[in-house]
Automatic annotation (TrEMBL):
<dbReference type="InterPro" id="IPR000843">
    <property type="entry name" value="HTH_LacI"/>
</dbReference>
<dbReference type="GO" id="GO:0003677">
    <property type="term" value="F:DNA binding"/>
</dbReference>
<dbReference type="InterPro" id="IPR010982">
    <property type="entry name" value="Lambda_DNA-bd_dom_sf"/>
</dbReference>
<protein>
    <submittedName>
        <fullName>DNA-binding LacI/PurR family transcriptional regulator</fullName>
    </submittedName>
</protein>
<dbReference type="InterPro" id="IPR046335">
    <property type="entry name" value="LacI/GalR-like_sensor"/>
</dbReference>
<dbReference type="Pfam" id="PF00356">
    <property type="entry name" value="LacI"/>
</dbReference>
<keyword id="KW-0805">Transcription regulation</keyword>
<keyword id="KW-0804">Transcription</keyword>
<dbReference type="InterPro" id="IPR028082">
    <property type="entry name" value="Peripla_BP_I"/>
</dbReference>
<feature type="domain" description="HTH lacI-type">
    <location>
        <begin position="5"/>
        <end position="59"/>
    </location>
</feature>
<keyword id="KW-0238">DNA-binding</keyword>
<dbReference type="Pfam" id="PF13377">
    <property type="entry name" value="Peripla_BP_3"/>
</dbReference>
């Protein structure tokens, strides 16, 4: 089809009037389910983008900001969402929350994105996108802001993942540890652009200290305390277990501590543990960590959105600082055992 697709094209393909097509796409309750689905199928097939003029949703006039998250139960997303929602509330903006869910739901969300222009801007919280998803985002013609990650050339606010990893690793190396394990956190189902900074920091810190990395001391698991506990078990099963463990998140670090204590090992006298994030439980459990200001990232993302809608200049990249928090889970390595001597 030549030329831009309009609502009449969608209505014609679906076999309904333009008024019915408009009501179906806007979620009007007085449209039969089968009719609504037929209109949506037509819109998806034609890659129809809702016209601001036709719908009355001129940019900056809906009063709504769409926020997309991969998870709701995890602490990081809740803390970032709280900071973001407070800024939007004070500005009189409504928040539309979308949870991606599994890989199938994620694909469906991005497939339908061009027809869902119901907001003035979109904020992506804590996940990256692939090239196809980025193209779908660009098609809706509104401002995009990312928090906790970077998405192409769109404005973003996040920590320096590498710098955070180096703070954790340099602390362990400074304490005198040479056998340092790493538990990598991965969420391949939804985090397509998992940042590599925390892993590269591990390798760089070892290289700077003249330590040859041992592949047996790196374990990759999903992002949960239970998997952290399992990973620690694998590390303890290696021929030469680590004297310290660097975990990609505090949840994973806390799982590792549980396994160590259940194995009769002392933390940090036998094995030191450090994480990243400064989860609310980190202080309670005396966990050493690298703190990141999660709520502040949500707050800044909200301010970036509002500035863009007001036509004000927006910093393309904001990097918030992290800081090392030393608590009771990290200490010097245990003294080497004396070699057995024959009488």
């Amino acid at each position: 089809m030549s030329g831009p697709v309009n609502l009449a094209d969608v209505a014609r393909r679906a076999g309904v009037s333009q008024a019915t097509a408009s009501r179906a796409l806007s979620g009007h309750p007085h449209v039969a389910g089968t009719t609504r689905e037929r209109v949506w199928e037509a819109a998806r097939a034609l890659e129809y983008v809702v016209s601001p003029d036709a719908s009355g949703l001129a940019r900056g006039t809906t009063g709504r900001i769409a926020v997309v998250v991969p998870h709701l139960a995890r602490w990081w997303f809740g803390a970032a969402l709280e900071g973001l929602s407070e800024v939007l509330r004070e500005a009189g903006r409504d928040l539309l929350l979308y949870r991606l869910g599994d890989a199938v739901s994620r694909q469906a969300f991005f497939d339908e994105l061009p027809t869902r222009r119901r907001a003035d801007a979109v904020v992506l919280l804590g996940f990256g996108v692939d090239e196809r998803e980025r193209e779908r985002l660009d098609r809706i013609g509104v401002g995009i802001v990312a928090a906790g990650t970077r998405v192409g050339s769109h404005p973003s606010v996040s920590i320096d993942e590498y710098a955070a990893g180096r703070q954790a690793m340099d602390h362990l190396v400074h304490l005198g540890h040479r056998r340092i394990g790493m538990i990598v956190a991965a969420d391949p189902e939804v985090d397509l652009a998992q940042p590599a900074g925390r892993s590269s920091a591990y390798r760089a810190a070892l290289a700077d200290a003249g330590i040859t990395p041992d592949p047996a001391l790196t374990v990759t698991v999903s992002w949960s305390a239970e998997d952290g506990a399992r990973a620690m078990g694998e590390l303890l099963g290696s021929p030469d277990p680590p004297t310290a463990v660097y975990a990609h998140s505090d949840e994973i670090a806390l799982g590792a501590v549980r396994t160590l204590r259940r194995s009769g090992l002392r933390v940090p006298e036998d094995v030191s543990v450090i994480g990243i994030d400064d989860h609310p439980l980190a202080a309670t459990t005396d966990l050493s960590t690298v703190a990141q200001p999660v709520g502040e990232q949500g707050d800044l993302a909200g301010r970036m959105v509002l500035a863009g809608l007001a036509g004000e200049p927006v910093d393309p990249v904001i990097t918030v600082p992290t800081r090392l928090v030393i608590r009771g889970s990290s200490g010097r390595p245990p003294a080497p055992r004396p070699a057995n001597r024959r009488p």
